[in-house]
Write a sequence for this structure.
């Protein structure tokens, strides 16, 4: 599954010559000028190829990114992932890196990518300092009374696995990424979620850091 594009192409040429009879009908009856393209598209599905040649560099092929600035996608609800991909494309969620990634994707591709990543198994994480009894836990479970911040658990679930279809999974997500999202909700740079913007404007940096750390270890 980790073959590079060129290796897939070569493998395909070999496989397609040996097993031409097993190929789907439309891929056997190809015009000569389209032959190379169709052959290349047949071993891994086109979506798996996109995952391996594009998304994997930052999100890992199994959706459990290693770098803390790149969100884990594994196990995330497909409806949420699809919403984000569409909104990166139409600019409702502004992000220079991701808007470039989705520019040439059709809605069908986005649906397939969302389904692929949501079916991957999410890895768990650990909080650095916000475990049981911490400020992070208090905010997650009970909100912040003085400033009217609601409990995160009300919408993201007691275990952080979210509530399909609207409320994303947070459990195990990199704290750096979660903190960055809370900050961009607060500034309005991420303007695709009015509910989260209304909450983030009432939070201090310290509170955001605590809850982001807690969420990383949530399970
Ligand atoms: C160069 C690195 C890079 C590549 C390649 C990349 N991404 Fe991303 N992706 C990011 C970063 C960084 C973010 C966080 C953006 C932000 O802060 O708003 C992100 C965010 C996302 C999100 C939103 C996740 C969430 O929890 O809201 C989705 C969905 C996503 N990427 C899917 C993809 C898919 C599908 C591909 C392949 C077509 C891809 N990405 C390729 C870096 C990358
Ligand atoms: C009233 C419901 C509600 C509450 C309470 C709530 N959230 Fe959210 N949250 C949402 C919704 C809806 C989204 C999805 C936004 C979207 O569709 O783009 C979201 C998205 C997020 C995201 C972005 C996830 C990602 O992968 O990019 C983070 C981080 C987040 N919430 C953290 C929190 C924290 C921390 C709290 C508690 C302080 C909290 N939320 C409380 C509704 C809520």
């Amino acid at each position: 599954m980790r073959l590079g594009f060129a290796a897939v192409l070569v493998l395909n040429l070999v496989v397609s010559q040996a097993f031409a009879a097993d190929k789907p009908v439309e891929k056997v009856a190809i015009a000569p000028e389209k032959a190379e393209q169709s052959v290349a598209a047949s071993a891994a599905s086109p979506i798996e190829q996109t995952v391996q040649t594009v998304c994997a560099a930052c999100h890992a092929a199994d959706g459990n990114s290693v770098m803390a600035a790149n969100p884990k996608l594994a196990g995330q609800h497909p409806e949420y992932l699809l919403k984000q991909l569409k909104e990166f494309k139409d600019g409702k969620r502004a992000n220079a890196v991701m808007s470039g990634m989705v520019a040439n994707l059709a809605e069908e591709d986005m649906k397939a990518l969302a389904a692929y990543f949501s079916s991957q198994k999410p890895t768990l994480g650990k909080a650095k300092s916000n475990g049981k009894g911490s400020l992070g836990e208090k905010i997650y479970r009970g909100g912040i009374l003085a400033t009217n911040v609601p409990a995160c658990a009300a919408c993201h679930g007691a275990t952080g696995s979210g509530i399909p279809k609207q409320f994303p999974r947070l459990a195990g997500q990199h704290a750096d990424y979660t903190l960055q999202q809370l900050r961009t909700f607060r500034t309005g740079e991420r303007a695709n979620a009015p509910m989260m913007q209304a909450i983030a404007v009432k939070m201090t940096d310290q509170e955001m850091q605590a809850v982001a750390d807690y969420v990383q270890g949530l399970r």
Residues 71, 80, 83, 139, 149-150, 152, 154-156, 166-168, 170, 178, 181-182, 192-193, 195-196, 199, 211 surround heme C (ligand 2) (CB under 6 Å). The domain at 135-216 is CATH 1.10.760.10 (Cytochrome Bc1 Complex; Chain D, domain 2). The chain has a mean pLDDT of 86. The CA atoms of residues 47 and 109 lie 7 Å apart.
